[in-house]
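hey so i finally got around to running both of the ones u sent me last week. sorry it took forever, my laptop kept dying halfway thru and i had to restart like 3 times lol. anyway pasting them below in the order u listed, first the sequence line then the structure token line for each. didnt double check formatting much so if smth looks off just lmk and ill redo it

first one:
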Amino acid sequence: MQDSIQFGSKTIDFKLVYSARKSLGISVTPNMEVLVKAPADAPIDKIKQKLRDKAPWILKQQSFFLTFHPKTAPKKYMSGETHLYLGRQYRLKVIEGTLNVVKLKGRFIEVTCTEKGRAEELLKKWYLEHARVRFKQYAAPWIERFKLYNVEPSSIVLREMPTRWGSCTPKGKIILNPELIKAPKGCIEYVIVHELCHLVHHDHTQKFFDLQEKEMPGWEKWKMRLEVLLA
């Protein structure tokens, strides 16, 4: 069943599942959903009180997962639009020509195409090509450093993900969202370090956060900048 509680000015929606268990369990999914598993005889008022007690932690977890939720507004890929690349803003200039090519020229991303309707396709391809090069370049020294913990990713691949900036598979494959190429180098490195930390500690335990802080002091500022920049 679906229900909610009020915590200050925040409304926290949650999904409640009753089962044959002895204790109450509260978790926050990567999609920022709050899942409550409760004993079959647990009164709803006690469940809600437990949620209020845990509300600061729940909001912190939701804020954390929000980092990995791309929220960029839809673009029309027309001249004059502002587009990001490595954290800097560029004006888009779409030009009809005999070739299909994308170039950075000063403060402009210039897209020359045989048909203006292809501007989106060409720009996305350009972003993807640059993401492949930059992500590999930025990840290399971090991968080398994490060998101190006897871990190394099996591979790093790019994949469009509607709700995540990065992820790590049980077999050690790190997946990065190519949309990250729009963020500054520090934001990209933050996501890379985050996923490398998961090779050492699979869950978001205190040991995980201690390692992330040790390897990238001040990671919170890059997390926040990523969240704000690509909101």
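and the second one:
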Amino acid sequence: MSESQRLAVITGAGNGIGRSTALMLAKHVKTLVLLDTDANKLATLANQLTALEYPLQIDIYLLDVTQEMAVQTVFGEIANKHSRLDILINAVGGGTAAGNPGAKLEDMELSQWQGLLDLNLTSTFLCCRAAVPLMKRHQYGRIVNFSSIASHGRRDKVSVAYAASKAGVDGFTRKLSREVGSYGITCNAVAPGITLTERVDEKFWQVRSAAEKNDVLESIPVGRLSTPEEQAEVTVFLASEAASYVTGQIVEVSGGI
């Protein structure tokens, strides 16, 4: 099957890097399945994709990818309708979803800890578990997970929960790549630096003072924040035939941090 005939599933497609990836990937695949919890943003994205006038089929599903039964149901519907799944991009995640994304350990509620692990790591597990059997059926697959440079535990403005969840994504990605490699499936992760999505702009960047912003920028060798499109470029590469011999890698897209 040619690359232009592939089916790609993108979680968190309505926002940020997921949305940029959908817009960029549209010209390379036959079918895009867009998953998100925000119906309005999914509809807006679907309209944008339709306006591109590519020969593209678009399916949208409202889905909370932290919910096991809901994930199984939606991926079952995808299997019944299309009988294949070639590309899975797990773009759901983030640290600003917690009420206090920079909370110290002693100030963190168990619900905050569990919420960030579910959002960033459990969602990745559930979607990969649902997708891999479909990929094995056709001896082909590209899985791209989302980690973060925070997984190293050296970022002061994020919580231990966020760092732990993204470190978990790193280990999960490397281990899964070994389990599925013989089936023609690659599994990699993109680890962004600070990326100016709408959510990060509102909840992280705009609340900083001019001095704090300057400190952040001085810590980045290229001297600026990333755009969602820059993260999407690397994501689309890892989902492509050009990356057929790349697997088990955590690719940092951080401006040199």
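quick thing i noticed on the 2nd:
The chain has one domain: 3-193+228-252.
anyway thats it, ttyl
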